[in-house]
Design goal:
This protein is mainly α. It is built from two helices and two strands, in the order ββαα. Strands 1-2 form a two-stranded antiparallel ribbon. Helix 1 crosses helix 2. The longest helix has about 70 residues.
């Protein structure tokens, strides 16, 4: 199992990860370290453990907000999908109605043409 070295709050940690996940783990550690450093800048030196816990809570807060947004987007997708299905059904109904009216008009024209043929034969020439 591969191992990577990451640095959090100035301390180095050796961590194992799955093959091919090294860059991903390093990126995650860098993001977490950014949270720690930002908190350290905002609240000062408050102790490693407390700082790490606060950074962890901040990350989980961001995760919860992202999950809330995803849930809202999923709900919006459901609403838009239903609306799209309703529009499609309405379109199909209008298309069917139009085809029916067009068929009625074609039959009426055909009937008129037959009536004209019967009452006024075309001159032979």
């Amino acid at each position: 199992m591969p191992e990577v070295n990451v640095e959090i709050n100035g301390r180095k940690y050796r961590m194992a990860c799955e093959e091919g996940q090294q860059k991903h783990l390093i990126g995650l550690a860098e993001r977490f370290n950014s949270q720690v450093e930002a908190l350290k800048g905002a609240v000062g030196e408050i102790g490693d453990n407390r700082l790490t816990v606060m950074a962890g809570i901040a990350v989980v807060d961001e995760l919860a907000e992202a999950e809330r947004k995803i849930k809202a987007l999923e709900t919006e997708v459901v609403v838009l999908t239903r609306a799209g299905q309703e529009v499609a059904a309405e379109y199909e109904a209008l298309e069917h109605k139009f085809a029916s009216k067009l068929g009625d008009a074609a039959r009426a024209l055909e009937g008129a043409a037959v009536a004209l043929d019967e009452t006024a034969p075309l001159p032979q020439g």
